Amino acid sequence: MKTGAPAAEAATQAVVQVVGGGTAQATGTFGFWFADQRWEWSDEVAAMHGYTPGTVTPTTELLLSHKHPEDRAQVAEAIAKSLRDAEPFCSRHRIIDTAGVTRHVIVFGDTMTDDHGDVIGTKGHYVDLTDTIDEQRQEMLDGTLPELFEARAVIEQAKGVLMRVYRLNAEQAFRVLQWRSQETNIKLRTLASRLIAELDSLPPAPPQVQTAFDHLLLTVHEQSGPE
């Protein structure tokens, strides 16, 4: 049986294969300009909503029409707050696509600035957290994760932080970490270590915590830190 780093690497590769290789979940990008309330979304985000890429132009009204009725007011307030306070749009909610399928998504936002450093909008990522793992793959995942977490306690710590901040379950939190690892081409353990090391840099004020954490998650791969 492999032990130490080799075992951890083997476990990581097994998990990647179980949850779908390089695309563990659907991800896409968006941009929102405050001045004219103009939205742009990537082909992947269009597909999440059920549209063929390039067939519709996203607007606030269109986006809100796809929000789950129980989440619509929350998202509308998040967009309004983004406009009012010139801060990133961040939210975890449900959307209903054109086929009537409900999807669980989390939106990570960061500020968008002009050449003078003035905030002109928000940009970021949509991550589809909808559970699509079948029973056989779930059994494989359940059998692999304990070995991975035993070898890499820091990943468990980072996962716990995401679960707390974004109110995700364990599997969703792991998928988010894996997504950032793949997006930045940084090993999962390295990314988790840097994320935990940078937590003390976050402001203590509760209303600002999630926005600051979004920024950290999207930029931690640029920070120097443990490998």
From TrEMBL:
<feature type="domain" description="ANTAR">
    <location>
        <begin position="135"/>
        <end position="196"/>
    </location>
</feature>
<keyword id="KW-0597">Phosphoprotein</keyword>
<dbReference type="InterPro" id="IPR052162">
    <property type="entry name" value="Sensor_kinase/Photoreceptor"/>
</dbReference>
<dbReference type="InterPro" id="IPR011006">
    <property type="entry name" value="CheY-like_superfamily"/>
</dbReference>
<dbReference type="InterPro" id="IPR035965">
    <property type="entry name" value="PAS-like_dom_sf"/>
</dbReference>
<keyword id="KW-0808">Transferase</keyword>
<dbReference type="GO" id="GO:0003723">
    <property type="term" value="F:RNA binding"/>
</dbReference>
<feature type="domain" description="PAS">
    <location>
        <begin position="41"/>
        <end position="86"/>
    </location>
</feature>
<dbReference type="Pfam" id="PF08447">
    <property type="entry name" value="PAS_3"/>
</dbReference>
<dbReference type="InterPro" id="IPR005561">
    <property type="entry name" value="ANTAR"/>
</dbReference>
<dbReference type="InterPro" id="IPR013655">
    <property type="entry name" value="PAS_fold_3"/>
</dbReference>
<protein>
    <recommendedName>
        <fullName>histidine kinase</fullName>
        <ecNumber>2.7.13.3</ecNumber>
    </recommendedName>
</protein>
<dbReference type="Pfam" id="PF03861">
    <property type="entry name" value="ANTAR"/>
</dbReference>
<dbReference type="InterPro" id="IPR000014">
    <property type="entry name" value="PAS"/>
</dbReference>
<dbReference type="InterPro" id="IPR036388">
    <property type="entry name" value="WH-like_DNA-bd_sf"/>
</dbReference>
<keyword id="KW-0418">Kinase</keyword>
<dbReference type="GO" id="GO:0004673">
    <property type="term" value="F:protein histidine kinase activity"/>
</dbReference>
